[in-house]
User: Fold this.
Amino acid sequence: MNRNKTSVLFEGLEGKGLRIGIVKSRWNSKYTDSIAQGVLQACHDHGVEAEDVVELDVPGAYEVMYGAKHLIDTDQVDAVVCIGVLIKGATMHFEYISEAVSQGIKDLNIITGVPVVFGVLTCLDEKQANVRSFGEHNHGYPWGQTAIEMAMLKKKNSL
Ligand code: DLZ
Assistant:
């Protein structure tokens, strides 16, 4: 897998001693499972210990915020990646859930003081979800790197 194609450079990531949460929606699980694998791969590659990765599945994207808050409130994580895949349908459901989840994750970042990564794809069709969930463009890998970088920053700030 060619990792040079990520649009952001991640340098000096050191995941040892950091606790990373992965909250994954079961809706569109063929995509969310693969994205979670990308996050896990990034954790592994950057030295996060396997026992320091906390995984939690929730029914849908709307529930990822509650799941992340649970991991934060119970002091299980230094950063969390919320994974979901929303695919636009015939009704307004997509718009309402996308808006609520993006705002909710933003609120968690501000209110809890624990970094929460927006790992939610908001796709107009299955093709968009496919491209972003598998292979070299699996967004889970850079989202995992983002969580590690932000957890490092949090630790640094709390020293
Ligand atoms: C109901 C629903 C619909 C229509 N579409 C999706 C989707 O594309 N992706 C997703 O993660 N979840 C979807 N959901 C489920 C909602 O996220 C949520 O689980 C339910 O509305 C119950 O709160």
